[in-house]
Amino acid sequence: MRELELYYGPQHLGMVGNFSITLKVQGDRIVKADANPGYLHRGFEKLMELRTWMQNFPLVCRINVVEPDHIELVYAMGVERLAGIEVPERAKFIRSIYCELARVASHLFGLWAYANMLGFDTAAQWAMYHRDLLLDLFEELTGARVYHIYIRPGGVRRDFPRGFEQKIVSTLHAIGGKVPDYNSLFFENRLFKKRAKGVGTLTREEAMNMGGVGHTLKATGMKYDIRKIEPYAAYDRVDWDVPVYTGGDAWSRLLAIRDEMIESVHMIFKLLDTMPAKGSVCTKTPNPFKWNIPAGEAYVRCESSRGELGLYIVSDGGDKPYRVHFRTPSYSHGLTILEHALQGENIADVGNIMISLYVVAPEIDR
Amino acid sequence: MDRNQLIKWLKTPAKMSHKYSLHAVYFCTGCGIIEVPPSITARWDAERFGVVPAATPRQANLFLITGYVSVKTLKAIIRTYEQMPSPKYSVGFGSCPINGGMYWDSYNTIKHLDKYIPIDGWIAGCMPRPEAIFVAVTHLWTLIDKDMADGYKRYEKHYSAFRANQEQVLGPLPWPPLFSSRETE
Amino acid sequence: MTHPMVKNLKSMFKPIAVKQQDERRIMLNVPKDSLMSVLIFLKNSGYAHLGLISCVDRIADNKFELVYIVSAYVEEDVDDSMKATFVVSTFVSRKDPRFITCIPVFINAEPYERELHELYGIVFEGHPRLTPLLLEREYPIPPMRKDFDSRAYVEEVFDTVPFVDQEDDS
Q: Which residue spans within chain B are E strands per DSSP?
């Protein structure tokens, strides 16, 4: 059979984000896949070397457009480690609640993308509507729907407004009360099972060799979560569990995402209960125009909604970073694992595998 | 809707059909992909304005360039724009196509999208809210009524200047010119 | 509390510098020729997750510093010493930067080395495809080096493109 070259290009109904894959197909089967990133490369690491430490915060949250909060957190953690700043207790709890809300919103966006790609519009509309309810909370807290710029080195920018905890609780009850409906509509749907079971299967060894993190690994049965291994913020003050599934295919990955969302909602309720009622939310930092951080290097990491997010940061004693390099989870998922998982699959399953691996294109290109 | 407006609409059915059924190309070009899905789903419904996503550029007449444009994306944008049938309207979304925005000193992004393809309107913000898209769409209706949304006509008229700019940044382009060089400047 | 691996590393590989930042981070600097053996030793001891390959342009010393960050895939209820991260670095010359690829040790190193090749100009011998990953055009020198002035480049290339005069039609 003749071999054709197809461009699953940037303008495609099954593509989320500006990313392209060059496929060599024979009939309907894919023989070889070549990922083609670079449409969103802005040269962040060069831009960050030209701005001061505080001026980088509005820039750094635009690396991952779907979920900017964990990148702010990891950059603030890097700066704090280099400068030796401690975060007060209440600020740690606020950071955890903020990041967990961002995780739920990001997973709902992923659910929209997956359901939209499958053509299942009802579940997509529900997911996006519930995400908008969470973005209303963010807007009240920080002033913007996306790109919040809320975390700063030493804590957070401002305290919760009055009555905010009740608003969080009522919004999460509204979303959480819909989980049985989501289950019966989408997750227990016979057609979704037929479409997603057995597609893009990865064994645990393959995923570990190729650098898989996040729920790609949790769907193969391994409880690898940075919030448990290297606890940061307030994750070691509450009791929570990491949901895993065995199976390694797209169906297990989507179920792991759903369970992680539900676990995050429970975690937010527990954090709100154990949070200290009063306290400062930010340690004082020097004048940002004249802040020189002592020379050194640091590697910090956290668990974003896609997996292990790391930052390697080097300072030479000046007022600008010397070298900044982000280790984003979509890099290994979108380049190494995707090219491996697409071999032998149908063309119709390219979007299926790509979105269940949770590849976000701006994270690859930075 | 009063009688005068109804009569005015019935006299120009072509303009009515251009305005009230804008099919937007499904191309998520940059940061702005994060505010387009909320504007086409249930909370801020864009279909009440007639804006619906289209599958391919050959079936679309609105191009929403959402966010910054890198050099690689510019190639894809030019190809997509040239595949759309006339009359077509293009709107720059966000402050990055206007003047470079946040990435004004980046070695891989272009600063003024106006130099490479014609733009009918701009939406300022970083990110603009979904309501800003709807304000832009209603503005575009007014421009279509007054015959001022003529980006596609300007593209044909000044095609050699646009193509020279495109080739200055991208190198020799592998596709032939869209219009043969017989237009006047 | 010193990490148990530090003693083995010091005795087997004679690193130039070893620093333990806290109980979870160990920074090493090794000579160029023993980097592969350090990585293979770490992988065989259970630290099989290559997180990042990065590069720092030490223009004052006229060298590139290649950094490899290695940690372990562990679950929560495992010994604390397995939760550490090793930051292994080595110096490569800046005039003619060449190094060997570590794809035989860690398969997922392939896109990292490809990106460093196009952004810094480092050639990794043995890499199956050193084609451009992110960039579309040719730059006079690799763009992430410290002597590449991106603001001057933007002024020279993108700001000199003229605006198209579209005002003469009514």
A: 23-25, 52-54, 62-66, 89-93, 121-123
Chain C hits for A314, CB-CB cut-off 8 Å, are: 56
CB B66 within 8 A of CB B32: yes
φ, ψ at C97 (rounded to 5°): -80, 115
In the block, tokens 């449409």 appear at A39
Backbone angles phi, psi at A32, to 5 degrees: -150, 145
Helix, coil or strand: residue A200: coil
Q: Which of A331, A304, A330 is nearest to A75 (CA)?
A: A304
Mutate to test the interface with A, among B70, B83, B96 (most CBs of A within 10 A): B70
Q: Residues C123-160: pLDDT tens digits?
A: 998 899 888 888 888 888 888 888 888 889 988 888 88
End-to-end CA distance of chain A: give it in Å, rounded.
39
| Contact assessment for residue A90 and residue A281, using Cβ atoms and an 8 Å cutoff | yes
CA distance A109 to chain B (A): 9
Structural domains for chain C: 4-157 (3.30.460.80)
Gap between the Cα atoms of A324 and A49, Å rounded: 8
Mean pLDDT score of chain C, rounded to an integer?
86
Domains of chain A: 4-365 (1.10.645.10)
Whole-angstrom distance, CA of residue A301 vs CA of residue A285: 22
**Interface predicted TM-score of the whole assembly (ipTM), two decimals:** 0.91
For chain B, the domains span 3-149
Tell me which fold the domain B3-149 belongs to.
Rossmann fold (3.40.50)
Q: Is A37 within 8 Å of C134 (Cβ atoms)?
A: yes
> Within 10 Å of residue B98's Cβ, how many Cβ atoms?
17
